[in-house]
Amino acid sequence: MKDFDGLVLKILKNKEAKEHYILYYLMKKWPEICGSTIAKHSQPQRLENNVLFINTDNSAWSHNFLMMKRQILNKINKFIPLEKDKKRTIKIKEMKFYQGKIEDVFIKEKEVEAKKEVELSFEEEKVINSQVNKLKNTNLKPIFLKIMEKDKKYKKTLYFYDKNLCPDCGVPLLKNEKYCGPCGRIRRDKLRYKISEIIRSAPWLSYNECLNYVICDKILFSDVKERMQEWAILEAIKPTATESEKYFAVMLDKELTPENISDEIVKKALTVYKRRRTRVFTSGK
Known about the structure:
The chain is elongated, with a radius of gyration of 23 Å. It has a three-stranded mixed beta sheet. The protein is built from 13 helices and three strands, in the order αααββααβαααααααα. It folds into three domains: 101 residues, GMP Synthetase, Chain A, domain 3; 54 residues, no CATH class; 103 residues, no CATH class. Helix 6 packs across helix 8, helix 9 crosses helix 11 and helix 11 runs antiparallel to helix 12. The chain has 285 residues and is mainly alpha-helical. 17% of the residues are buried. It comes from bioreactor metagenome.
């Protein structure tokens, strides 16, 4: 089965599509990867830019993951299917954790499988066959014919019984999904830009304060803010940095409002940033 998953990854050319498939694969294999006990208290939730976001049901389990982070990360990467040339083009470089309710994300699939499957029409089968016939590799044709027929039947059955559809494009969704993968990414990119604009105008805002301006989840907000912090601090410690760039970096990092910041605070913070940066370079990391 792993050879089949590797074949799918080989055919998927887009990095986002590969990450979406790998996330689905890891969610399916999660009890096998980390054990049934850990799997009851955690769940892969999102994979973006080689960062795997994991949901845990309490802070104690997040702490346990942090303690075992390196071992689990290595095991996850070994579980990612090899592509046809025996290489992995996608590797998870980082894991981030947050707390939330653990739910069976595949319950919708199980419900659909328990229902009577809706058959495909002649026209639907004709469209699938025409798409499969475009493949040059004759060995792949029967495999992908079976995959596409199963996928189409699943979506058609889901629509017939549930009609839980993506509001943007109309494709059937799994339980708890608000949007399909592609539409969700488009919306997250727009939301990411909006969050960054809000932080630029008010760098001291916390997540709860940001909710007054835009509705977003804490994972996305934290990710945008962390990236901006790294960029702002690097800009602030440059010899050519302006006063506004220095103040922006410190307000963002310390969540200080303009009335609570001073030249002395900025000076001390920049000293720490430079020392930290020097330590990283000398350690070779």
